[in-house]
Amino acid sequence: MARGTKRWLAAIGLAGALVLSAAVPAQAAAGGNNDFACRPSAAHPNPVVLLHGTFATYYEDLNFLQADLAARGYCTFSLTYGAYPQFPFAGGLKPVAESSLEIKDFVERVRAATGAAKVDVVGHSEGGLQSLYLAKMQGIQSEIGKVVAIAPPTHGANASGLLTLAYTLLGKSTWDTIVKTIGLPIFADELDGGAAIVALNTGPVAQPGIAYTIITSRYDELVTPTETSFIREPGVHNTYVQDSCPFDPVGHIGEAYDPNVWHLVRNALDPANATPIKVCAVGSPG
């Protein structure tokens, strides 16, 4: 099934799932997303920067989560990173290191506009990897309070064995050459043995002073084995969606749209006021 179709089906499933999710407070952050006049409140002092996944954009992937956070009083910001000028309709295609520079500049713009000392970063899929890479590799550790990564390919994705098959049939160097030639270097970068994965995992991933939460699904079909999302280092909270909602079948794309995931993200951003999920939604598989 095409990725766009899966996202469309996930969005349809979202309508029913929202009925089961907790009620959203009436107050909203002024202007919603990317309101550079927004001033963080005492309750939520860090602006939240949201990072989409591969082939997505700021307005299609974490946009529903962003709206949920804004409605709860957060100043929220997002950008489409890693897009080519000749095709701006899909982001996350450039090498991680290149896109990370765009994200760093955006974070510093958000901090300058809002007056906040730190931002919190929430990312899905490649966006989760970008949040980890940004915190470690761009020298702005002191500007980041929390990282919440949803299904990141922290140690490289295997895509249910497809990468192993490609390497076996073509060889890694040939695969890398092909994806770079067709303008999709991210397919070499974020997979097992990719440059970004090697750089991220050389030495500790988690950086001092940053609180990390990794959220993924036992049924994620793209970042596999699912354990590869987790960071087994001190100070990192790793959790499966099914630890809270055992019967949620949510898959990789569906994790961006799943109210259970949103609840876990809110808990990670505001641990002092964390609450259990009382009624579990049913996320989209795949």
TrEMBL record:
- Sorted alphabetically, which keywords does the UniProt record give? Hydrolase, Signal
Instruction: Offer one example of a GO biological process linked to this entry.
Output: lipid catabolic process
Q: Which residues form the signal peptide?
A: 1-28
Which InterPro entries does the protein's record reference? AB_hydrolase_fold (IPR029058), Lipase_EstA/Esterase_EstB (IPR002918)
Tell me, what's a Pfam family for it? Lipase_2
Q: Does the keyword 4Fe-4S apply?
A: no
The molecular function GO annotations come to: lipase activity
The molecule here is called Alpha/beta fold hydrolase
